[in-house]
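User: Working on a comparison across species. This one is Pyridoxal phosphate homeostasis protein from Nocardioides marmoribigeumensis. Can you predict its structure so I can line it up against the others?
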Amino acid sequence: MSARAAELAERLDVVRRRIATACDEAGRDPDEVTLVVVTKFFPESDVRALAELGVRQVGENRHQEAEAKHAACADLDLVWHFIGGLQSNKSAAVGAWADVVQSVDRAKLLRGLSRAAHERDRVLDVCVQVSLDPPGAAGRAGADPGDVPALVEAVRQAEGLRLRGVMAVAPRGEDPGRAFARLAEVAAQVRSVDPAATWVSAGMSGDLEEAVRWGATHVRVGSAVLGNRPTTG
Ligand SMILES: *Cc1c(COP(=O)(O)O)cnc(C)c1O
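Assistant: Here's the predicted structure for Pyridoxal phosphate homeostasis protein from Nocardioides marmoribigeumensis:
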């Protein structure tokens, strides 16, 4: 095993134990929580090392980088999650390689995603990204909780897409537990409309314990496994 692979193995083990402990404390079964390792900014070689270590779910947030990595790793049995901001003119391109698009925050994205699903002759899994920021906050991503029901309906009507649930990022400067509690309410509303939409993707390196406490089914962990990214992202 290379030094890098050994380092990844050690960090991955720490993260898996953090998830197990958080589940234990929340009285949840660890099988209910899926770890998505966020490999953005890191090379194909790291994705390969992670796959060797049993990682099956990877997350990326930039289309061009992810498209290239996906192509380079075509021999690996991985589920690719897109978790980044999406332009409507790029949604078909993302849908061409992603297995799951977690960051659907407006109906304008759906046409391209549906087209991609049609071209691949498969169903594309999507989550609705919910904003947990105060209205008008700078740089916020995600649909306002009040706009989620209409967006959920639009996803349900869209050809080739399967609504899996909700995704969110905790805002900076707020206790993540409070933010994830709001997400849990939105998730429950979505499930009341579509009982199969059970995913709650929440929690990152710094707040995965809070997310698990509030019902996350997917945590998206980057730096705690791969180390610090070269720049913000
Ligand atoms: C980068 C990113 C993550 C992972 O963040 P870490 O703090 O490195 O774990 C999770 N979710 C989204 C949407 C991201 O862009």
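For your comparison, note: The radius of gyration is 17 Å.

User: Helpful, thanks.
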